[in-house]
Amino acid sequence: MIVRTFDGVQALTSPQPTWSHDSGALSLYGSHQAYAEIYRTQPNVRICVDFLARNVAQCALHAFRRVSDTDRVRLFDHELERWIGKPNPSTRRYRLIESLMSDLGIYFEAYWLKVRYRDAEGRSAIGLVRLPPEEMRVNGGLLPSGFVWTTGGREKEFAPSEIVYFNGYNPSNPIRGLSPLETLRRILAEESSAGAQREQYWRSSSRMEGVWERSKDSVKWTDAQWQSWREQWQEFSGGGAKAGQTAVGPIGSTYKPVSFSAKDSEYIAGGKLRREVCAAEYHIPQPMVGILDHATFSNIREQHKHTYQDTLAPWMEMITQEIEGQLLIECEDQDNVYTEFNIAAKLAGSFEEQATSLQTLTGRPVMTGNEGRARLNLPRMDDPDMDKVAPQQGGPSDATANPTPPAQDEPPADASADPEDQTARTAAVLQATRERQLVRLAKMPTADRASAFFEDMSRWQRELTDDLTPLVGADEAASQAIHANVALLTELSRLEAVV
Questions:
Q1: Cα–Cα distance between 346 and 59 in angstroms, integer?
Q2: Which of 185, 442, 452, 480 has CA 20 to 30 A from 363's CA?
């Protein structure tokens, strides 16, 4: 595939942005010129933008056809998947989405140029090339009427149909996005000033600023003596070979520090606050950007889910709608086609959690013996039964095909017993076990109870199953034990998150 830009291949050159702070507020020259420089120099901004870009890019973008309200089909060879999967010879899907999300995080707008060509099979296709937002201008009023790309001192205008345009909300200018960095300009100016002050402090060999005071009885100096003393002190206080040496002042003079220390100026606390504000501006949970003051095992897990459900999901929804509205219309196959990020793969949980959930939902194993051996890198077995999924656990087919006589030391459940009495005895066993568990956990701090209970989960499962088996049978006992222990673990996790 050959991707061509206008008048041949052009070098994408970016202007050298500048930014400064004036009276505590960040002054940005032009509408976009400084945003990339802020991202480059401000670690709190880069942490948040890179977090969003990397996590959105990791989720694959798939195309589906809606067959009915309850059924859909994945379109592996759809034009949209091909175009986004290989947008141009030097870019792949991950980099395309990562750069898109980075542009949205920095500028709150992004641009893809559509490059039309014929693929190897002679089909009409579209290549996608990122255009730097700082080099773009949008013409129009309420709706874009054209896009102008300025590069190498030349301008090229494109019709709206030739650009895939992503932009965020800006009440003062509907056709342009309002960068989050514009809202953060004061807090970023504070960060810049604090960093500059600390840099100057260390450049001066960590010396505190101060003044020399002379007593009123000191001998009056001539101008030459003042100049000589000034030069000597500046040489000494400027660092270099005399760093760490002790200063000796003139007779009758006293040195008094007048600067604030890092502790007095709350430099560390201020830096932490600035990161919190940046994370809040991008709606990112604090533990996800390294603020772990109140992080625990359970609330980090919950905030990880919150990240994908409430932080990334809105971005993904906006991106998919723009792709469907500006790229899908270029496809021949549009009938009930839609796109979706595979966010479910990030929220699926560990393999053990998925296995437990699937077995609870289906009531039977979901893998054959040879499939399980393959996951452990063990050779397959030629036994035909190893290529079959085991019968439903506890069902009629299992009981008929594989009858299991009760153990001699465990009498079978009494089928003729009064159901109400059996239910009451089962409830009593469950309550007694729960009280025993709570008494043991009460000896631990509230924040550690969920983790401790989870570590002993197999033990509690085994003991409760043994207690219930004489009443309801082995299979039902195991099921009730799972539900009881999971319910208590969920309750402990919620209590830990509140604490």
A1: 8
A2: 452
